[in-house]
Amino acid sequence: MAIGLCNLHTILDAYSLSLFLKTWSSICNGLMEEICQPDFSISSSTFPPRNTSGVREGMENKNPISFVFTSWSNMGFKEMDFGWGKPLWIAQRGGTKETIPNTVVLMETWEGIEAWVTMAEKHLDDLKNDVEFHKFAKLNPNINFTI
User: Mind listing the UniProt keywords for this protein, alphabetically (predicted)?
Assistant: First the structure.
């Protein structure tokens, strides 16, 4: 059994997706008391606007590659149960270098953290050949499920 969900980020962010799925899971299991009641008033205090002017000062001649990092860890995705058990594996759709360029999504798994990386092919080749990087990561780890 698999659940697939597609949404526009302009409508639903990962935290809101987590609340939606937790609520759906609670309804499936008849746990009405566990239905999430989000508080939309706290977001501006949790993530207040920041002044990012001057962040790139001194980098004009270095051609840096900017990345967006986001974490889906600790959002409860791997704890959700729709009535047939907890998920074996959780993934996000991913994208291409055109749709979500230079993005790293950290996903919690039963064995640790997966990093879903999207970037230009030439930079991926550099990463694949980086010995230091391989000390901390497995590229495309094998996924085996035992049920």
Answer: Acyltransferase, Transferase
Segments making up each domain of the chain, as ranges: 65-147
Q: Which CATH number fits domain 65-147: 3.40.50.2000, 3.30.559.10, 3.20.20.80, 3.30.450.40?
A: 3.30.559.10
Angle at 73 between CA 83 and CA 3, to 5 degrees: 35
Q: Please, which residues bridge with residue 106 across strands?
A: 71, 115
Question: How would you write the chain as a 3-class SS string?
Answer: CCCCCCCCCCCCCHHHHHHHHHHHHHHHCCCHHHCCCCCCCCHHHHCCCCCCCCCCCCCCCCCCCCCEEEECCCCCHHHCCCCCCCCCCCCCCCCCCCCCCCEEEEEECCCCEEEEEECCHHHHHHHHCCHHHHCCCCCCCCCCCCC
68-97 pLDDT, tens per residue?
Answer: 888 888 888 888 888 888 887 777 765 655
